[in-house]
Amino acid sequence: MGTGMRRTAPKPLVGSGVDRHVGERIRHRRAEMGLTQEDLGRNLEISYQQIQKYETGANRISAGRLFEVAGALTVDVSYFFEGYNGAKPASPLPHGGHNRAAIELVRNFLELEDEALRNAVTTLLRALRDQQERGAAAE
User: Fold this and answer.
1) DSSP assignment, residue 90?
2) Domain count, the chain
3) Same-domain status, 131 and 75
4) Do residue 76 and residue 118 come from a single domain?
5) What is the pTM of this model?
6) Are residues 93 and 116 in the same domain?
7) What count of Cα atoms within 13 Å lies in the side-chain half-sphere of residue 106?
8) Is residue 83 part of a domain?
9) What are the tens digits of pLDDT across the range 33-66?
10) Hey, how many other C-beta atoms are within 10 angstroms of the C-beta on 46?
């Protein structure tokens, strides 16, 4: 290479550890609220693809946009940094925040106001899981 031009290393495809952590916290809170990426994107007037890029850490999120996301998800900006220790992002949700059935389940569960009814639903789900595990072990 002549003329003094230097080659630089290619940029990584995913963001830094803090970008991934913030993205995972966005995904976690969104799923906790029973929102899809489309729902959050519509609220913020951006595409679901942009939400997806923020959640994976592929795109960095500006301070202003993070403030808007915090408002849409009804948390303080500091929420997105909780648990960040400079190492790895918080453990992801088992369904990755993508499974519509899981999001719908959370949304419906959160709409149940009666604590006894919530406990009954939780007990039912545990019983169904246990029955499934017993059936799989018997095969």
Assistant:
1) P
2) 2
3) no
4) no
5) 0.57
6) no
7) 17
8) yes
9) 999 999 999 999 999 999 999 998 889 999 999 9
10) 16
